[in-house]
Specification:
Helix content: 10-25%
Radius of gyration: 15 Å
Largest sheet: 7 strands, antiparallel
Distance between the termini: 15 Å
Structural class: alpha+beta
Number of strands: 11
Strand order of the largest sheet: 2-1-11-10-9-8-7
Shape: globular
């Protein structure tokens, strides 16, 4: 995961496991030092930081991964319930998801091409490039 927030750039390695019951993210530095473990299941959210990684950043990451990987059928009603618009378009290379307010201002944009996801949060001014590698 390559990310940016303002002028800050960072790269973390992560093992992500996901199924219909659970989403877990185990993040590491490039040297293999554990940063955090984050688990979301029907029991709730468990966050354990090994370094000074802020819990709020982990929770944002969890929500961002849900927007990237959960089905449209799951996400769209939640986004609409929040009073926002959800648009997904597909093409031969992948897909694009946009969350916008009622004025058409884009809040989040996610683009998938092959094994890469580009995630932009324009409201909070951060982005990720997620490159998936099968283990």
């Amino acid at each position: 995961i390559h990310g940016s927030h303002g002028d800050n750039q960072y790269t973390i390695q992560a093992v992500v496991q996901m199924d219909k019951e659970r989403l877990s993210i185990n993040a590491f530095t490039a040297f293999g030092v554990s940063l955090f473990d984050l688990v979301y299941s029907k029991e709730g959210v468990m966050f354990k930081a090994f370094e000074s990684f802020p819990e709020k950043s982990g929770i944002y990451l969890l929500g961002d991964f849900q927007l990237c990987y959960y089905s449209v059928e799951y996400i769209e009603p939640l986004i609409k319930k929040a009073g926002l618009n959800f648009i997904e378009t597909e093409n031969s290379e992948g897909w694009e998801r946009i969350i916008e307010d009622n004025d058409g201002t884009i809040i989040v944009k996610i683009k998938r091409v092959e094994n890469k996801l580009e995630f932009y949060n324009y409201l909070r001014e951060y982005s990720y490039l997620i490159e998936e590698i099968e283990l």
